Amino acid sequence: MTALSLTKPELFRTSSFISGRWHTVGDSTYPVKNPATGEIIAQVTDHGVPETRAAIEAAEKALPDWRDRTAKDRSKILRRWYDLILQHKEDLARLLTAEQGKVLEEARGEIVYGASYIEWFSEEAKRINGDIIAPPSADKRILVMKQPVGVVAAITPWNFPNAMIARKVAPALAAGCTVVSKPAEDTPLSCLALAQLGAEAGIPDGVFNVVCGLDSPAIGQELTSNPIVRKVTFTGSTPVGKILLAQSAATVKKVSMELGGNAPLIVFDDADLDLAIRGVLASKFRNAGQTCVCSNRLFVQEGIYDEFLERLVKVVDSLVVGNGVEEGVHLGPLIHEKAVAGVHEKVADAIAKGARVIAGGESNENGPCFFAPMVLADVLPSMRLFNEEIFGPVAPVFRFSSETEALRLANADESGLAAYCFTKDMARCFRMAEKLEFGMVGINDGAISNEMAPFGGVKESGLGREGSRYGIDDYLEIKYVSLGGL
Ligand code: SIN
Fold it and tell me: Which atom of ligand 1 is nearest to the CA of 167?
């Protein structure tokens, strides 16, 4: 079976989805490539501003009916969508691996991970409750209502082409909003397959629209400036997030931004080293190092520095790189050659400034998008790797001596998404959890993402939270009603 011979061929969609229709007539297309092989796997419609406007208008038209349905009704549709996704997990995973490159086992994990947000918000839909507040005088009552914000623009990245759509669209739909999605141009197929299953689950026409196109800046400009759109939710790089924020300001839209991270992972002398190594594997090499929550800066205390490196090198040397559809492969390719070049540049800077390569290398024997996982020792804060997100399978290891120094180094960055810390000292666990300036902290845990927890960052890593009971708030407005004359 090739990656794209699907059991359910209808999941292979290649055009924008607007108002319940696949929008193909007379349009130009662009190629979507498999990063492992370079093979063109699809030609997808190259849509732009007119289609984005049409999608926004479709979402506006569908809003009143969707918003006014009962929460239970919306919940049932989301639940059906979740069930269908799990039923077609294998096809969705194969599509994902073909367009994004991650190994099939991880792709299956992403389908379940993404679906878990749909399941979660199908349940939360029924728990959007208001409030009655003590009034200032006896003849008044203060009522608080929660209402959907309206039309939502969801702009998503290529690293989790399924889960990031699910994590945004599910709470939006649960809250009663309608959505226009713009998936990353490299990986539109997973999003389109989700739209197909959504329609089969009963999501009404116009409630979930998808625009595919190469001109992301123009589409983004329309989504952030069109007054019909009331909320923009974005996952992606910090520079692009800042542009979208500035553009959204003109019409004062509500915004959620899940931006870049540069996660520290701190290992103290007293840590359980097996646990710490497992934590590094889970947080550093997931998706070949291409996640916002990847540990990027490993700070290891001097007393265990050499032993830790020795153990890390052993595991990293055993990682197998290759095409993600092949058995036994742990790491797939990076998304494109430009991404590989970016990793090379940062590694070269570190080596020029004194870092040592102690595992892996830069071999690309599998093809131009591959980068063999690497461990760098003797890394210093003066190197680019300290303040620049790597987005590749490179583990730079810094040495530190005291807890104060570890905290200072970890916090010395403009990003604040995720941080990790390994120690057996319970008091230190709390000190680190409280003093690390990050939205998410894994203590003795390298796998922190799940639908029950609030995902999001502080500082330049973003605004808002996704998942958990807090995740729906970003799609709701609070209305206060003063009821007088009682
Ligand atoms: C991301 O990299 O943006 C998302 C990672 C996750 O959900 O764990």
Answer: 7
